[in-house]
Q: What sequence folds into this?
């Protein structure tokens, strides 16, 4: 027997949780079904230990403001990322006020965001970046210093036994946050269940097929009893991490032609030593290594997970052909199609630095990884840090009119021409900007309903349809209101 639904969401991560929550608020009469192949939701990239939990607002991430060849830095992308994170803050605030989410400290906590660089070239760049951001309303309060005494007050572990005469600089944004996206995802799904949404785990979607009436037949299999089944849905969202490309390819939509993904795994160094943890309350980012993908920018982070505070350093890249931690060893090769083989080969030819970087990372043992940590924290001791496996990321490879194929940083929504199916590819800063990404999806896939939904969307996200940075008073009001509701910094 074939089941029916208005909406099927594939994947139990932050993206499906966000989209499901939005649709349930906008169209409570629609039947929504969620399928997750694992035994619990939020076990892959949304798990707190599988992502940085930075609350990406471009306060500290240098890759959102690269230095141009002429030496200038453009704040436009950083401002755009921050705008998107403010939408997430507003949405979460609304859900807290409505009782949909639990006490805010269970998923978000104030944690200053810092950038720390060494060497005259990077110091000069960081100062230019600071000058470009300090007068932007959404970056109000950002600080800059080259003074070891000031930086020591911000983050003592960075300066202990630092070599004399070394050139360094740091910025600090007190309003940064640490977000437990695993807890946030679980709370959203728990609320959806209470509203009657079917959130079904241990159910793996195997194939998507368009039906004559334009709807989709979602073929699935229970992973415990191996029982097959199918659900017919008017709309399908594929939020299955690296698995998404396989399902979008199975759907046959031409829009997925030319896309491929390159899997990159990760590891963290972690410590819960209370003496060390007590001396570092910040997320500190730096420059990426030569050839490293943007998602591998090194950072020393305060993390609060299930009420326990610890420190993470990394990520260190690993390699596996799997698209998910619980994926297949054949994933990398099974994605190859006539439409994407040339872009994928071109990416391989154009990125020898990435291959060299990955080989170097794979050759690092525990001691070598602690050596990398000592560039941030000179006093780090091997015995204080344990190695923790992180999630798999699937970096987007796609056609490019000029280069045949490019390796792309970030996330991308691939949508069928009629808007009845959409899927998300890519990685950072996905989770932090999930609300913005899903708002864009709603506008694209439901153009005949978005105007009707707008009043409710404005209740949930007061800045919906507008930008805050050009309006300092509005930006200040939104920052203050969400900070008060969420119990975090402005």
A:
């Amino acid at each position: 027997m074939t089941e029916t639904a208005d909406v099927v969401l594939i994947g139990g991560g932050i993206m499906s949780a966000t989209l499901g929550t939005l649709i349930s608020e906008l169209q409570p009469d629609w039947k929504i079904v969620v399928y997750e192949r694992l035994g619990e939701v939020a076990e892959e990239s949304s798990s707190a230990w599988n992502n940085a939990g930075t609350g990406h607002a471009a306060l500290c991430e240098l890759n959102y403001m690269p230095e141009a060849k002429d030496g200038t830095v453009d704040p436009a992308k950083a401002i755009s990322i921050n705008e998107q994170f403010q939408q997430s803050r507003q949405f979460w605030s609304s859900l807290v006020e409505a009782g949909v989410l639990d006490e805010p400290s269970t998923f978000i906590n104030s944690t200053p965001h810092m950038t720390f660089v060494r060497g005259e070239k990077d110091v000069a760049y960081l100062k230019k970046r600071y000058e470009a951001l300090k007068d932007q309303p959404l970056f109000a309060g950002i600080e800059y210093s080259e003074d070891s005494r000031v930086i020591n007050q911000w983050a003592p572990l960075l300066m202990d036994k630092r070599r004399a005469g070394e050139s360094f600089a740091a910025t600090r944004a007190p309003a940064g946050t640490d977000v437990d996206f695993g807890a946030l995802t679980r709370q959203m799904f728990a609320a959806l269940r209470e509203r009657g949404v079917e959130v079904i785990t241990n159910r793996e979607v195997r194939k998507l097929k368009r039906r004559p009436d334009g709807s989709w037949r979602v073929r699935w299999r229970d992973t415990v009893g191996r029982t097959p089944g199918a659900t017919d849905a008017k709309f399908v969202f594929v939020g299955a991490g690296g698995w998404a490309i396989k399902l979008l390819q199975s759907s046959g939509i031409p829009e997925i032609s030319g896309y491929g993904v390159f899997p990159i795994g990760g590891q963290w160094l972690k410590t819960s030593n209370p003496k060390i943890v007590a001396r570092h309350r910040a997320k500190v980012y730096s420059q990426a290594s030569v050839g490293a993908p943007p998602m591998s920018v090194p950072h020393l982070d305060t993390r609060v997970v299930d009420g326990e505070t610890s420190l993470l350093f990394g990520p260190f890249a690993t390699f596996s052909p799997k698209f998910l931690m619980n994926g297949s060893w054949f994933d990398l090769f099974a994605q190859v199609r006539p439409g994407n083989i040339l872009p994928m080969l071109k990416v391989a030819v154009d990125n020898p630095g990435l291959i060299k970087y990955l080989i170097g990372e794979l050759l690092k043992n525990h001691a070598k990884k602690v050596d990398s940590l000592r560039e941030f924290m000179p006093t780090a001791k091997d015995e204080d840090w344990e190695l923790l496996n992180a999630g798999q990321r699937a970096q987007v490879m796609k056609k490019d009119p000029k280069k045949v194929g490019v390796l792309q940083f970030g996330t991308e929504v691939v949508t069928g021409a009629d808007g009845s199916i959409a899927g998300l590819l890519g990685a950072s800063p996905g989770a932090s900007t999930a609300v913005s990404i899903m708002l864009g999806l709603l506008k694209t896939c439901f153009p005949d309903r978005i105007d009707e939904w707008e009043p409710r969307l404005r209740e949930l996200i007061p800045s919906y349809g507008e930008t805050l940075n050009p309006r300092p008073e509005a930006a200040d009001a939104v920052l203050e209101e969400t900070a008060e509701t969420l119990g975090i910094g402005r």
Observations:
- Residues 34 and 199 are 5 Å apart (CA to CA).
- The radius of gyration is 22 Å.
- The chain is about 30% helix and 25% strand.
- The longest helix spans residues 76-97.
